[in-house]
Amino acid sequence: MSRIGSNPVAIPDGVEMTIAGQIVTAKGKLGERSMTVDSEIEIVRGEGDITLRPRSEQRHVRSMWGTTRSLLDNLVRGVSEGFVYNLEIQGVGYRAQVQGKTLELQLGFSHDINYPIPEGISMACERPTKIAVSGSDKQQVGQVAAEIRAFRPPEPYKGKGIRYEGEYVLRKEGKKK
Known about the structure:
The chain is of the alpha+beta class. The protein has two domains: 9-80, Outer Surface Protein A, domain 3, CATH 3.90.930; 83-164, Ribosomal protein L6 (Outer Surface Protein A, domain 3), CATH 3.90.930.12. The chain has two helices and 13 strands.
């Protein structure tokens, strides 16, 4: 019995859910998203929530039960609240700014990095050393944040680079005389 899969997915106010066969569509203030549920998972619509049940007791079906419930919960949360990853830039002269549909990064290289902002993602730089990546698709927001961080990951000696907000970087001791 899946502990995650057995929990119902709550539908908040302002989110409209439609179920057509195995396709679930959520429409909210941040847009419309849909997903296809595995044919071995049964979708049951209740009052203000959706419950998922496996149609058989096979191992694959039981493993997809909890995964599908998590994906459906992310779908509902994405169209109602959205997801945000905050990135911090540390280093002398390192900064970022949004110019139209492009994120311009100055990270100590001989050239600036121009990162095109994908569709469905919005970025804001409230300070030159802080980037907020937001959107309605959790996977896409996390992927974009990881790609930006990969331009200059934090290094262990001085801690310079791009890191997630609250990320702890293990610092190493420099060489001794």
